[in-house]
Amino acid sequence: MKRRVVITGGSVISALGNDWQEIFKTLKTLKNCVRYMKEWERYTYMNTMLAAPVDFEMPDFPRKKIRGLGRVGQLALVSADKALKSAGINPEDPELRNGRCGVAYGSSMGSIDPLLDFYSMLILDDVKKITATTYIKAMPQTCAVNIGVFFGFTGRIITTNTACTSGSQAIGYAYEAIKQGVQDIMVAGGAEELSAMDAAVFDTLFAASAKNKIPEKTPAAYDKNRDGLVVGEGAGTLILEEYEHAIKRGANIIAEIAGFGTNTDGTHITHPNRSTMSIAMELALQDAQISPDAIGYVNTHGTATDTGDVAESWATADIFKRPVPASTLKNYIGHTLGACGAIEAWISINMMNEKWFCPNLNLEELDPEVGPLDYITGAGREIDTDYIMSNNFAFGGINTSLIFKRF
Fold first, then answer.
1. 33 carries an active-site annotation
2. Residue of 33, 101, 143, 335 with catalytic role
3. What structural domains does the chain harbor?
4. CB-count burial class (<10 Å; 0-12, 13-18, 19+) for 117
5. pLDDT tens digit sequence for 37-70
6. Which of 41, 232, 278, 323 matches a 20 to 30 Å C-alpha distance to 168?
7. Can you list the positions of beta strands (E) in 38-176?
8. pLDDT digits (tens, 9 = 90+) for 129-163
9. What's the rounded Cα separation, in Å, for the pair 177 and 219?
10. What is the DSSP letter of 133?
């Protein structure tokens, strides 16, 4: 018998805010968090000057336990700490050290600044900037292992460094670990720190927005006049728990994970594949053992790129065969890369419980090339549904789909 997996806590650090009530209030204002990055003007020939940074200060944690953390690791750790507290889990509980509690966490990469120290060594032939923690801050698994060490968890460590599906894959793999009986509790999520380098990656692909004079109008996923994505930063964490375990300790259950699907395109690193995107959604529906008709809302990846929006919307339409209500959070907080799957999942779950879903900000003229979905606009939409889907798609042709059930 399949073990049920529920969500008993969660948190986000985002440009929208750091707790649900703040985020809910900000979403209702129908304004985005994108700003012009004057400090990026130093980069010659870079077209985009837009980002959605987070106002973040590291709490006063024991220095010895956080000296191996760059900014991305700090974001992840603080989010994980808040999520554990929201779940009513005492980090000092001996049960967390019996091998049944693990971490699944991802980011596109580690922190950038330590890499510059390595670069300095290679260019200047001087190792004075290299310390015992330089690699720890830069390594791709920095979020997952630092969370595990900080709290002393001894269960599984799953690190997902799969670009824009890092957070959603982490949640999915954590769900599978509990469902299959190898773990009882998993701390799952994703994080990303803001870097001009990330913006430059998309800029060189002509996939970054250059509406520098009107940051409030971009990104504009699914809009005819969209011109690309905007990078953001943040972290999101869910506490996943086996149902009976959660009931036994009297936990407050927020939602249930009903299904997960993931696959790869096998065709191109950066060009999305409509067919395999659809298959990922179908895999999640099969895992949940429900029909597409049961899904009342889809949180889309919605990057505001030309090919991405078209491929994803048609892939979604192919599965649902009806105008399913859909919107993207990236029009508010930009593309948070490795964090987006976790941030968007947590906010979508809260919207499901509020029975209100945010509109597609900046969607003024629907692109006739996108698929026939019910793109939520205006002041949002009140929807009473027991199931929602959250999708993410990453470079490398990596596709994920998560289905959450109201509890």
1. no
2. 335
3. 5-406 (3.40.47.10)
4. middle
5. 999 999 999 999 999 999 999 999 998 899 999 9
6. 323
7. 50-52, 101-106, 157-159
8. 899 999 999 999 999 999 999 999 999 999 999 99
9. 36
10. T
- Verify whether residue 271 is a known catalytic residue: no
Residue 221, Cβ density class (10 Å: 0-12 exposed, 13-18 middle, ≥19 buried): buried
| Closest to 64 in 3D by CA, of 153, 149, 191, 140 | 149
Which tokens hold the place of 145?
């292992």
Look at residue 244 and give its three-state secondary structure.
helix
Q: Annotated catalytic residue: which of 33, 301, 340, 358? A: 301
C-alpha distances out from residue 251 to 159, 316, 373, Å: 26, 34, 37
245 has catalytic annotation = no
- 10-residue mean pLDDT profile of the chain (407 residues): values are 92 96 97 98 97 94 92 98 96 91 97 91 89 94 97 97 97 98 98 97 97 98 98 98 97 98 96 97 98 98 97 98 98 98 98 98 98 98 98 97 98
What's the gap between Cα 336 and its chain centre?
Answer: 7
Question: Catalytic pick from 164, 245, 340, 358?
Answer: 164
d(CA 152, CA 135): 21
CA distance 236 to 116: 26
